[in-house]
Amino acid sequence: MNRLTIKNLKILLINQFMRCKLMRKLVVIAGTKETEKALLNQLNSIFGELIQFEGYAIDEGLPHHFKNELILYSSSLIEEEVEKHIDFSTCTIIVATRTVNYEFIDRIFELSPGQKVLYVNDFTRTADEAIATLKGLGINHVDYIPYSSESISFPPDIDVAVSPGETHLIPEKVGKKIDIGVRLIDLNTIMKIITHFRLSDELSIDITNRYTKKIIDLSQKLSQVHMQARTLNKFLNRVVDGVNDGILAFQENGEITVFNEVLEKMLGISASYAKGKKLSQVFRNIELTRFLYSKETEAQVLLTLRQRDLMVFRFRMNDEAVTVATFKDLDETLEMEKARKQELQKRGYIAKYSFSSILGSSSIIQETKKIAAKLAKSGLPILIHGETGTGKELFSSAIHNESSRKHDPFLAINCGALPDDLLESELFGYEEGAFTGAVKGGKKGVFEQADGGTLFLDEIGDINLKLQARLLRVLEEMEVRRIGGTKNISVDVRIISATNKNLTELVEAGTFREDLYHRLKVLNLNLPSLRERKADIKLLTDTFILQESGSHKKLSSEVLSILENEEWKGNIRELKNTIMYMLAVSEESTLTKNDLPKTGSFSEGAASREQISLDIPPLRKKEYLALLTAIKVLFAQNENASRQKLKEMLNETRHPLSLQQIRTRMKELQDMGCLEIHKGRKGTEITEKGIEMIDRLKG
Question: Tell me, what DSSP letter sits at residue 596?
């Protein structure tokens, strides 16, 4: 009897154990089949036969209504999609917290520091959460960019994507795809399951130990990676400091990462000061910063910095999203070139400007630069015509640097600034004893010194007829004879001449030789006045202010409007002088009307300067009125005046406009000072002048 009782008791206990086991059931609901499979594998590996698991994926449908179940959501994002299938009065819900899959994390360590990486997940929110987890674990050496099926686009320069099991969502354009495995359930969620089923403390300790080991392993890997990086960085720094060139490296956002000792000496800037700062914070030279930020893959430019001629080479390392620039001191590298060129370079006979130095986005200056670049390719003489201050020497320098002679000398001489006798000796040179005061051994003229390169003759219309005859002979024969000399010296020089005078009228008046005129004007280039390119005034003033005061000053909209309506007979030179004056007298951070010079046209009162010219065709007036009125209404309602919105409003008037017509009219009104067009949310604003224009157009 006792044996039967004991036997029956054992059977009873076994049956109770089996019933308890069957009662320990967990339903896993995930968004995708792949996630469901990965989570079930993880849970089975942890709990074995202690818990019965069922798994479902939303993308395959949920088969029935759940009652009296413990349900684990793979994330909070699936709650809305499953709620109609669950009886919440009888079910218990656990929302999983997910972490990285430690088995595949090594793949991220292979990526370069600072590299841009697309992190791809099913939803933007889960992508953001995953990125936060990686950074929290210290895996933050790359720049993660979140991407999901909700995303519209991504930066075009990204060629690597990382995904936790969602590689099918990675855009086709991305070359390298890295799968770091589906994100797994974290320790906190595992402990909730243990607590719910009241499992043993030994199991909790075992699971905690396993997770702790994985964290320790990850920490050791991170430590090794950082140690290797530090060692490599020290080695690279020694290599970089040991070369003879100045070396600069910076990231896409302009942050400087490498600044070697040679560059310190070249530029007089401490490496410790430069590293970690933006280019604009370290360099004051506008041409240098513009060159460094250029999008070209490889480029070079010759600059004069701290009275030293430096050749700067720049190339982009696309895989690393880093740009590297090397600085070569011409005084040191020219030893490899001919002695004559070396001497000329040391004397500064170089063209300092390129077409990138010529500021302006207006169509007329862009077209002028385009024509000049084409003329540069020819070796023929060019005659540049432009008013005072339009940049004739700037263009001549840029033409030389765009030509096949760019590595040869560039010399410039102002024919109107020298007396006739001195100009003659400067042009053609002289022999020893040619006249009182002649230096011993004689002197080469600019034609000889520019041999092989370009000679720029500024203010060519000011030379006398005697010098014109000598100049014509040199151009015809390409030979020069020094003053007091007896032999002709062959030269190979391209002539670029410039004038602000009407040479045709001078020819008709007999003060300029017609044959010389045609010899100089084989090719011709007309430079626009500032009056013809007023759209460039803001860019020019911003640049002048930045060059002189950094970013500490700005121009008020009222002053900008005044400057844009000025005649500028002295053109860009006069505009720059005006800005220099305002910076000198201003005591505020904003330049106002009170800072304008009190002489010349600025003393005539603002009213005459701000009058709006209504010399506009009747139909265009009506279009302006309709457009300005619509913008004024939207501005008063604090709404963004988008072109689409304006098109809809104008369609209800007698003057409907297409989107392209609206763009054109808005640009014209902006040039008149009636509108201020901003990027971003601020959008388009109507100015006081625009409101005044409405009243005048109605009248």
Answer: S
